[in-house]
Amino acid sequence: MNGELETAIAPSIAPPIPPRSPDPLAIDSASQNSQGVGNSEIPSSLEATSLSPGLASSFSISFANPSQTQQQTLAQAFVQSGVGLHSGQPTQVRVLPAEVGQGRYFVRVDLPEKPAIAAHITQVSQTTLSTELSQHGTSVRTVEHLLAALTAMGVDNARIEIDGSEVPLLDGSALEWVKAIAQAGIVPQPSDRPLSRITEPLWITHNDSFVAALPSPHMQFTYGIDFDLPAIGNQWHSWFPLREAFEVAIAPARTFGLAHQIEQLQQMGLIKGGSLENALVCGETGWLNPPLRFSNEPVRHKLLDLIGDVSLLGNIPVAHWLAYKASHQLHTQLAQRLYEKMQAV
């Protein structure tokens, strides 16, 4: 989730531009949210396959195997249970194989009509400290970690049955989702996976925060964050899927929060399910629940959130995805702009 507890706004500074070809093994970390979106330039040329806003809309580049050109689904179903970060309510998720072209979609099995909610950018309903999707009068929240795991592992088509309104946080990362997907297995399907590529830059900005999709011959994700707290500070991390496995470099990174904000967020009815067991918490003197899995675990988690949010495009275009002090709101607004361009092609 875009910052779950990660809501501190660092002082406004001019964002440093990372090296053109940063070391894929470099370590850095930090993050924060921003409110609203400023003006942005929309590229006139975007090569992409038009996507339907319905269920048959989720196709992805397989980070696990970029040479895989066929759509894929799970070999068998798997189940995960846990507590929702914001609701604090226990939920069970059952992820099943789905037919070619059905995409990734949620089904609220706790409701009488069992309504389906497409994991698509057109269904985003709110982005306050997590991404929520709504369709057919119902919603599901905090979808980003599960969707990032399915996308990065190359699962194009999946039926996600959930018996509540929020995907469980599990350990605060995508690692448990990745493990479950790997154990269930992935199988190819008899249909090609669409491929799209960014040909001109697209930026969404707000003050000194931004998110961008830049032309690139290969998929790359770069994220920067900045906090006053010394344990976090100003950090950048760049991930190249062709060089590092998602399950090793990104999936283990857990969500994080700032100790001085917890009470305020709880009073707002948020993070009712957050704890030292499923989120890193940082205070003035350092981390309350070390050790970290990476020295820059927070920024890697922000990168995880970005992947989950842009997966709502279905087909993630090949690009260099670059963000600084961004949020679920900025992530999804960029994805919405890209979707609009795709539809106009």
Structure notes:
17% of the residues lie in helices and 27% in strands. The chain has 345 residues and is of the alpha+beta class. It has a domain of 140 residues: lpxc deacetylase, domain 1 (Ribosomal Protein S5, domain 2). Strands 3-4-10-5-6 form a five-stranded mixed β-sheet, with helices on one face. The chain has a five-stranded mixed β-sheet with strand order 13-14-20-15-16, with helices on one face. The chain has a three-stranded antiparallel β-sheet with strand order 7-8-9, with no helix packed on it.
Total helical elements: 6
CATH superfamily descriptor of the domain at 54-193: lpxc deacetylase, domain 1
The oligomeric state is single chain
Shape category: globular
Structural class: alpha+beta
CATH architecture of the domain at 54-193: 2-Layer Sandwich
Mean pLDDT: 84
Could you tell me the CATH topology label of the domain at 54-193: Ribosomal Protein S5, domain 2
CATH class of the domain at 54-193: Alpha Beta
* Adjacency order of strands in the biggest sheet: 3-4-10-5-6
Helix percent band: 10-25%
Low-confidence runs of at least 5 consecutive residues: 2-61
Q: What series of H and E elements makes up the topology?
A: EEEEEEEEEHEHEEEEEEHEHEEHEH
- The share of residues in extended strands comes to 25-35%
Number of strands: 20
Rg, rounded, reads 18 Å
| Termini separation | 31 Å
Query: Biggest sheet: strands, sense, closure?
Result: 5 strands, mixed
